[in-house]
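Aim 2, interim progress. The first record below pairs a target sequence with its structure tokens.
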Amino acid sequence: MPAAAPIVDLHTHILPERWEDLERKYGYGGFVRLEPCAPCRARMMIGDRVFREVDDRCWAPPRRLADCDVHGIDLQVLSTVPVMFSYWAKAHDALDLSRMLNDHIAGVVASNPARFAALGTVPMQDPESACRELDRCMDELRLPGVQIGTNINGANLGERWLRPFFAHAATRGAAIFVHPWEMLGRDRMKEYWLPWLVGMPAETALAATSVIFSGMLEELPSLRLCFAHGGGSLPFTLGRVQKGFDERPDLCQVDTARAPREQVKRLYFDTLVHDAAALRFLIEQIGPARLALGSDYPFPLGEHVPGALLRSLDIADADRARMLGGTALEFLAIPALSASSASVGTTPTPGTTIAPGRP
């Protein structure tokens, strides 16, 4: 019988267990620090404010691997927690922080390259520095790409001053995973966890629509972008976006002549939508070839059993296998798992270990 298809979780987050006091190091506030608060638990603090409480799943690879084994995940793709982007900081400080986070995440991958891959982080407020750190991620650390935010200090991803970074990423064949942060409208969403429940989907849709209307995908046909959380509200507003494109070319076709429904097929999305009907609609709109399992492990709004929603759908086995692993491997441009390593907890055959690197 053929080996089981590999299961890849494209969307998970990790932190170092500790790092130096960044406010003291850089000389100004706003940076995150980690304060232990209980056994195996810590608070992410910004000044005197608690940003989030986390547990050792955020920093302990053995704990992560144990969960992967329980949930049947062959490969977990690591990325930093978006609040660590620090795009608001001085560029040279954000670069220094990015290098620390990237060295840590590459070390986790090196400790078990059969079970972990990773995406780095770069100081997007300075595209030149971001390009240099992207090169270091790929050449020195052997990472297949990076995670970026949906906006850069309020600038949409389609803005021209950011284009050199995306052009460089396309040339290098880097995978770019786009995660919401600093959500639009957050000043009006101070109650009920609304920035995470309403702001994140809207923020992600805005980022993807900016990319589509900006002409970036026409200019850079080899660029690989994946948007978190199923593209947020984009799949459900795509008809409206297309309608605007058709009815107001004077406003919507300034930088592109290609229809949004056509361009969206160039993008990748994860499957984290929390609802079977929503996932079926996402598959109908986008197609399984551009959808990859993502759980947002280990956070509360994640899928606690990665892939459970995909497995619950009555869809073709080939489509399910594609979304559970094949799409992620294609997006990352890393080798597929060998037959011997496609079962969780087994040792790969020599010479066939997953080793993320340049495409």
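The second target in this work package is listed in the same format:
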Amino acid sequence: MNFAFVQITDQHLTASPAELVHGVSTTITLRAVLRHIAQTVGDQIDFIVSTGDLVQTASAESYRAAGQLLGLHNSAAHAPGPVRISAEGLHDCPLYVLPGNHDDRDTFFSSLFPAGQPQSRLNATFVHKGIQFICLDWGPDAKAVAEPAMLAFLDGALTAPQPSIVLMHHHAAPIGTDWLDNFIADEVDRFWDVVAGRSVLGIFCGHVHTSYDQIVRGVPVYGLRSTAFAFSLHGEPDIWRLPPHYRVITVRDGMLTTHVIEVPLTEPR
């Protein structure tokens, strides 16, 4: 069946809306993104997925503030969801949430998914309208680690009869910026050995705060600019204060298409 969904990533929310991250109010930027989604594609999408780093500092207070901002409910959900959000014009919108390197796993699970059990890694699948979504967890550090258990999980999931879409926080293919590409797992070739030649419609990542698309071993790979701030693509680590992005993904007749939407920043109403 045909459907569309939205990817957002790297919200870096704080315990207090007044707290800035690299000079940016991540509360204001995420509110702008959610409002834009609601006003432009909210009635056309089936769900939203967040690919990690929901908070900047993984505390119960930060997750509580994030839940309040999102209008989050449905505490009976198990990771990765969906939970339901009602914020900025979104009404009971399903949201799947993956952890990133800023998300302490114990606090992430206990705060967002209290009905389930905390896990050391969130490797999980869900199926939506005939498409399998595979959620992979490369660990809590800035540099990804391709654990054997994650690779075995991925290999098993890809034996399913449905086509798959892979969701993950860390990127797994170089984007051409050394300081960011150093975060790629040393064992990343093992990941591509598992994925290559399988029925994967696309891989969607966060972590590097940059929107890009490329083909790796025949598989489309998509990155996305943070809802908060962008990273420099030059030689040295730096922050760029660029407008946030979100990505709209459409699956139609077994084919995947995407487009990135840039959100102009204005003060919330």
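Residues 3-262 form a domain with the Purple Acid Phosphatase; chain A, domain 2 fold (CATH 3.60.21.10). This observation will shape the mutagenesis plan for the next reporting period.
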